[in-house]
Amino acid sequence: MVVLAQCSRCPPRKSIHSYHTVVLYRCKLVVVARAEEYEDRRRELLEAVFRITAERGLDEVSIRTVAAEAGVSVAKVQYYFRTKDELLLAGFEHVMQLLETRQQRLDYSGPMRQVLRDCLLVWLPIDAERIASTRVFLAFAVRALHSPQLAEIEVKLEEEVVSSLAALIARGQELGQIRAGVDPEQQAQLLLAVLDGLTLQMLLNPEVMTVRRGTAAVDAYLDALCSS
Q1: Which one of 17, 29, 57, 197 has the lowest number of neighbouring Cβ atoms within 10 Å?
Q2: pTM of the model
Q3: With 50 as the cut, is the pLDDT of residue 148 above it?
Q4: Ramachandran region of residue 185, left (φ > 0), alpha (ψ -120 to 50) or beta?
Q5: How many CB atoms lie within 10 A of CB 86?
Q6: Domain annotation for the chain: domains and CATH numbers
């Protein structure tokens, strides 16, 4: 026998069957709404972490600075993230999700050279939005050198990127659009290394490694990869 307690948000009991239906429906709505509100507030705090890191660096991220940036109390931040380490871990996962979402929105139906180019440009700092995301990503990547938890996220991401690029290269070979003699996984690793180097140069020395030169370097590599 299941006993349902009277919910303060639900109307008084009229009949056992209608009451059960109303209680279950109304309480389910309350739970869903609260879960959505929780995720919304949590996301706002992580966006504050993103802005602080992009503008001032990861060393400036703290419970207090995030509270100030988000316009909430320190206690509110601590409700969602008990420690700075929890906040940083969630912040890194947040920027990973942003980058992965951009990649998922790409059109994968075109020529493989264009598909690979679009995938690589997601990670290259060629506009204000991508400059911010790559700055944040690199800040966390450096921090990962001394944080096993952050390193685990970084390694997992790199493995996923290499796997995705290797699959696209292999598909391009099947379609006759990429050189048949290359090893897909090796080329994917090389592409990632090229991307990492270009990103760092474009952020540190944008007057020399301009957007035009950065994208030209990507195009040159892809031209060699796709030539017969």
Answers
A1: 17
A2: 0.79
A3: yes
A4: alpha
A5: 14
A6: 16-80 (1.10.10), 84-226 (1.10.357.10)
